[in-house]
Amino acid sequence: RNMDDDGSKALNEEEFINGIHETGLDVSDEEIKEMFKCFDEDGSGSVNMTEFLLKLRPPMPQCRLDIIDQAFAKMDKTGDGVITLDDLKNVYSVKEHPKYQSGEMSEDEILTEFLNNFEGGRGNLDGKITKEEFENYYATISASIDNDMFFDLIMRRAYAL
User: Fold this and answer.
1) Structural contact between residues 50 and 120, judged by C-beta atoms closer than 8 angstroms
2) Is residue 125 part of a domain?
3) Across residues 74-93, what is the average pLDDT?
4) Same domain, 82 and 125
5) Is residue 45 in some structural domain?
6) DSSP assignment string, the chain
7) Does residue 1 sit within a domain?
8) What is the pLDDT of residues 54-65, one digit of tens each?
9) How many angstroms separate the CA atoms of 74 and 88, rounded?
10) pLDDT per residue over 33-45, tens digit each?
11) Which residues form the EF-hand domain (predicted)?
């Protein structure tokens, strides 16, 4: 956020270079440009918060991976290693969703929107959530939560584990 001079919630190459210099890191502009390319996973020419956090975060501890695996297994009702619309229909009710109640969206539309959350900017929006996509989604959330027990609590409450 400190490096984001224009408030776009993403860093362009100039902001990234200036930000690295401001940290006092002793590296050349060429080295920083290489770093920028590594951070800019999607090749968009900017580094969003997700890309930034994912590169800076340490690997997730096994306890977090275990609870993510439990949540994935609960969602993947067919056990085929992929969460689909049909899997969601068995675990996620849209009956209380305001857009379903108003008739603005169908059950499939709401569930598809829910699935797309897990793919975000890193997935292929094919309506199928792989274990890797599910873990990547929670890696982003994990990067902003310092305490393992709090992360565990969030996951348990979200998925009634």
Assistant:
1) yes
2) yes
3) 89
4) yes
5) yes
6) --S-TT-SSEEEHHHHHHHHHHHT----HHHHHHHHHHH-TT-SSEEEHHHHHHHHSPPPPHHHHHHHHHHHHHH-TT-SSEE-HHHHHTT---TT-HHHHTTSS-HHHHHHHHHHHHHTTTS--SS-EEHHHHHHHHHHHHTT---HHHHHHHHHHHHT-
7) no
8) 777 778 899 999
9) 10
10) 998 998 887 788 8
11) 1-26, 27-62, 63-98
